[in-house]
Amino acid sequence: MPNKKTFVYCEKCGKKLIERLPNGMWKFVFGKKAEGAKLPPVYMLIHGSLKMACIRRSCGHFNVFNYFPTNQSPTEKSGKNNKEEEQNK
Ligand SMILES: [Zn+2]
Fold this sequence. Notes:
By secondary structure, the protein is an alpha+beta fold. The protein is about 10% helix and about 30% strand. The model is unreliable at about 75-80 (pLDDT under 50). Zinc ion binds near residues 12, 13 and 59. Zinc ion binds near residues 10, 15, 54, 56 and 61.
């Protein structure tokens, strides 16, 4: 399969806002690359959750994007064993 890019869109107006990389990080690129430049004016990688206003000026809707995907529940098993040590008195 070729590189498949995943984007998230404004939940209000549907404008493409930010790219989601396969490792969960966000990639935000904005502006046109100048001739001879390696990168566009804005090139950001974001690790974590973020809240951003829609970049469509007539919209401005705030979107909240969680780092953790909502369709995957973390395993609850792995957290419990570690707490037993703290309870020993
Ligand atoms: Zn919008």
